[in-house]
């Protein structure tokens, strides 16, 4: 049973002051879009936005656990592409078969990463780079470098295309349930505390008797599983397995995690702020597309990337200032 302070907002803010910048930026962008664009708050835009960005939310949350331990997972985009092809091949059997098996395929890649890093002691950057290339090559091999159409006669496309009450996409509902479960795991379980402790100091965690290797294996298995779920949503939403997709998704996930206040060195992080970071990245593109639609200016896709990068830099700079101010207050106290 959850205690009354399980998700206390004031405690969350006090423990995660570094994440306030992303919430401020997200709220500001939502307000700006609401005031400037007629259809920004329309059901179609909100539904489409959540449906598409559910993939990036889930891989970002999986990535956040890895980064909290001081690791990295470069394979998530390629694993998502691979599992989208697996899910497409399994689509005739329905979502109830394709979903768990594709997620298990993602978990298998996470298991490879864990084996390379924990048993063979290969640095995470090198280990996950190898699995990134392996997953990308595997996706191209099993698909013959072609998109793999799903079976439209089954219920497979329900997750990516259908909505509850014609508004809320099934994809964001599934992702939301997973995210809430992982938030609880991080905040309220010994495994979550171990994940953060490893990022704070792996050697010290071992001396404290914490099950370091178990926690490290868990985060890579989790990241692979989240990428697998993203692959299912990709295939279900686009109606085909996409072996050429996923390029740069790992960078999007890392950016979402960092903007959300998780330290790249590990030891500090927040699941809700990571979700906010992923939404913020998606919202920047959403607003730029609306701006193009007004016809007053035309911003090419290349300039959109430049603007997005500049905006993210501003958020991170604001975040750094907040952290510096809090540290000064702590020394004064």
Automatic annotation (TrEMBL):
It is found in: Cell membrane. It comes from the Bacteria. Pfam families: BPD_transp_2. The chain crosses the membrane at residues 20-37, 49-68, 97-122, 167-186, 217-240, 301-320. CDD domains: TM_PBP1_transp_AraH_like (cd06579). InterPro entries: ABC_transp_permease (IPR001851). Keywords: Cell membrane, Membrane, Transmembrane, Transmembrane helix. It is a multi-pass membrane protein. Coiled coil: none annotated. This is ABC transporter permease. It comes from Ahrensia kielensis. The lineage of its organism: Bacteria, Pseudomonadati, Pseudomonadota, Alphaproteobacteria, Hyphomicrobiales.
């Amino acid at each position: 049973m959850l205690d009354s302070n399980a998700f206390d907002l004031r405690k969350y803010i006090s423990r995660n002051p570094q994440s306030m910048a992303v919430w401020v930026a997200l709220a500001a962008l939502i307000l700006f879009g609401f005031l400037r664009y007629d259809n920004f708050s329309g059901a179609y835009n909100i539904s489409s936005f959540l449906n598409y960005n559910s993939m990036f939310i889930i891989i970002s949350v999986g990535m956040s656990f890895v980064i909290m331990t001081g690791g990295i997972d470069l394979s998530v985009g390629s694993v998502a592409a691979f599992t989208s092809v697996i899910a497409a091949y399994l689509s005739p059997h329905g979502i109830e078969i394709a979903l768990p098996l594709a997620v298990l395929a993602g978990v298998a890649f996470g298991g490879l990463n864990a084996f390379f890093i924990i048993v063979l002691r290969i640095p995470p950057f090198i280990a996950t780079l190898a699995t990134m290339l392996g997953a990308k090559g595997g996706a191209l091999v099993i698909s013959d470098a072609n998109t793999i159409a799903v079976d439209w006669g089954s219920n497979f496309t329900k997750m990516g295309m259908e909505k509850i009450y014609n508004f809320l996409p099934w994809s964001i509902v599934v992702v939301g349930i997973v995210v809430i479960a992982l938030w609880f795991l991080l905040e309220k379980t010994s495994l979550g505390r171990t994940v953060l402790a490893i990022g704070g100091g792996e050697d010290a965690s071992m001396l404290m008797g914490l099950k370091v290797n178990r926690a490290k294996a868990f985060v890579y298995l989790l990241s692979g599983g989240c990428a697998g779920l993203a692959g299912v949503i990709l295939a279900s939403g686009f109606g085909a397995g996409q072996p050429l997709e996923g390029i740069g998704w790992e960078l999007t996930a890392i950016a979402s995690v960092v903007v959300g206040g998780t330290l790249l060195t590990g030891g500090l992080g927040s699941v809700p702020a990571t979700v906010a970071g992923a939404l913020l990245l998606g919202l920047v593109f959403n607003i730029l597309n609306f701006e193009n639609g007004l016809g007053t200016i035309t911003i090419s896709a290349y300039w959109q990337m430049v603007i997005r990068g500049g905006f993210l830099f501003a958020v991170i700079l604001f975040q750094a200032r907040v952290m510096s101010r809090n540290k000064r207050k702590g020394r004064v106290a």
